[in-house]
Amino acid sequence: xxxxxxxxxxxxxxxxxxxxxxxxxxxxxxxxxxxxxxxxxxxxxxxxxxxxxxxxxxxxxxxxxxxxxxxxxxxxxxxxxxxxxxxxxxxxxxxxxxxxxxxxxxxxxxxxxxxxxxxxxxxxxxxxxxxxxxxxxxxxxxxxxxxxxxxxxxxxxxxxxxxxxxxxxxxxxxxxxxxxxxxxxxxxxxxxxxxxxxxxxxxxxxxxxxxxxxxxxxxxxxxxxxxxxxxxxxxxxxxxxxxx
Length: 244
Ligand code: SF4
Ligand code: SF4
Ligand code: FES
Fold this sequence. Notes:
11% strand; 5-stranded mixed β-sheet; binds iron/sulfur cluster; single chain; binds FE2/S2 (inorganic) cluster
């Protein structure tokens, strides 16, 4: 995870020293703030007075809405991170990316076929990849982005879909790509085709759908709809948890 990269960098800069302090100095959109050490970037921004009305979703590393780029004092490199998953480091210069305006092909997945080099047809720019691996280094999900693009160039939809299963569409790879490839849109098309035409339908899902259509759960659903909020809360709290 990106947090690991940040921690490694922090160690290099003397994180022990930072942790010992109550606050760290960060820069948000160029303005200096002192915030409690240990906060995530997102919480630190809220602490500094910013409100995420748009551009923040799950706050748990799943939605990709909190893409961030930053630099550290005394370091020329640009780092990437998810603001909800990465802790602040003393001397961080932060900038949020609310949206990446990358090219997105328009298609109807019911009409596109998973054959030939369909990914190249919709995204011919993948042929411009220069194999620099910058996208892989930028990815907070540790996806082998360059390998996935190379698989896309070869028309290998299965490999693209499998390599990018954990893509959260944050767009950080596209921001850093010198060939201006919208990797995550290419990957999304591959996963859609994989799900629709290549993966075998899950038997248990088909069976459950049949049960739902046959009305097996209607009575139970109607009973739930009549249950009070308080009663529902009690039922929820008494549910047995399945451990990971
Ligand atoms: S592949 Fe790109 S869009 Fe997907 S998670 Fe990685 S950096 Fe974000
Ligand atoms: S950053 Fe762009 S050009 Fe470089 S490896 Fe990734 S897709 Fe290819
Ligand atoms: S807010 Fe969803 S990944 Fe950070």
